[in-house]
Write a structure and sequence with these properties.
The longest helix is centred in the first third of the chain and has 10 residues, at 11-20. By secondary structure, the protein is an all-alpha fold. It is built from ten helices and no strands. The chain is elongated. It has two domains: 1-55; 64-154, Ankyrin repeat-containing domain (Serine Threonine Protein Phosphatase 5, Tetratricopeptide repeat, Alpha Horseshoe). Helices cover 53% and strands 0% of the residues. ANK repeats lie at residues 29-61, 62-94. InterPro entries: Ankyrin_rpt, Ankyrin_rpt-contain_sf.
Length: 154
């Protein structure tokens, strides 16, 4: 039910459901209510879910946390809130990629993700963390000539 409310962006219905208590923040596929809210680009719902007690470090079936989603969708404001609520930038997905890697690769050389990359670096993300194919965010930005992102990583 909570997932339907998030899909519909039914904030009053979600608020009512939260007030009655949420038994499960994760569906049968390992997808959390928070992941869904972030993929629907609804920061207000994401904040409601976090404030209601959803674990900000839950991982989906690919091992991605809310911070990976923030990195992909370039949502630096909600990412900052998640970090303040205990979001862990060192959790790697099933490919060994931490949220910083996702932010760097999602930039695609346009300089659009510099702010979230900077946020992650300032919050302690490791630009030299190697994934399962032994690539780091720093290496990727340099090899792909993502100059603005590379400058943010330094």
């Amino acid at each position: 039910m909570i997932f339907d409310l998030i899909e519909k962006k039914d904030k009053p219905g979600l608020k009512n459901a939260i007030s009655r208590g949420i038994e499960a923040w994760v569906d049968n596929y390992g997808y959390s209510a928070l992941h869904l809210a972030l993929s629907k680009s609804d920061d207000e719902i994401a904040i409601m879910i976090i404030e209601a007690g959803c674990d900000v470090n839950l991982q989906d079936s690919k091992g991605q946390t809310a911070l990976h989603y923030c990195a992909f969708y370039n949502k630096h404001e909600i990412a900052k809130f998640i970090i303040e609520q205990g979001g862990d930038l060192s959790i790697a997905d099933s490919f060994g990629n931490e949220p910083l890697w996702t932010a760097v690769m999602s930039d695609k050389g346009f300089g659009t993700h510099v702010e979230i990359v900077t946020l992650f670096i300032n919050a302690g993300a490791n630009p030299n963390h190697a994934n399962k194919v032994n690539k780091t965010p720093m290496m990727a930005a340099k090899e792909l000539e993502y100059d603005e992102v590379l400058a943010a990583l330094l």
